Amino acid sequence: MQVTAQEDASQGKEFLAFKLGAEEYGIDILKVQEIRGYEAVTRIANAPEFIKGVINLRGIIIPVVDMRIKFKLGEPVYDQFTVVIILNINGRVVGMVVDSVSDVTTLTPEQIKPAPDMGTAFSSEYMIGLGTIDERMLILVDIYRLMASPEMGLSETLAAGAA
């Protein structure tokens, strides 16, 4: 039996769940290229503090963004759980440092609630909504909008990939 895209959409969308501090976030699994252990990065002079630097990923130099610094979630700690999620956004590759990755979760449209605007460091314009699974709540991030936002300083890079 074949499932059409229409039917598949009603069954849910998959999100990669990751932690930043005490909170759990989710991003569209289709934007994730791979998950790597944290490794030293090469710092770039005059880059914003949240851009940790760049890494060489099989011959491609990619920028690495530390999401804890970006969202002002305290001093980042790099340990055995720290990972870099390699994202592929419109053909451009970007690394995102997070505290840990937990699982891939499928959420149905009924499980995704609109996000309230609370004036936090994490603007609701970058949120798809809040995913609820029993007692667990995921802050669902629109990773394309976040990474392409002007304050990330990656918009030229991502726009070039979209062209």
From TrEMBL:
The superkingdom listed in its UniProt entry is: Bacteria
Q: Which GO terms describe its cellular component?
A: cytosol
Name the PROSITE patterns on file. Answer: CHEW
Q: Transmembrane residues, as ranges?
A: none
Q: Where is the CheW-like domain?
A: 12-152
Coiled coil spans: none
- Report keywords, A-Z: Chemotaxis, Cytoplasm
One GO biological-process annotation of the entry reads: chemotaxis
> Any idea where this protein resides?
Cytoplasm
Q: Which residues form the signal peptide?
A: none
From the Swiss-Prot or TrEMBL record, give the protein name.
Answer: Chemotaxis protein CheW
Lineage per the UniProt record: Bacteria, Pseudomonadati, Pseudomonadota, Betaproteobacteria, Burkholderiales
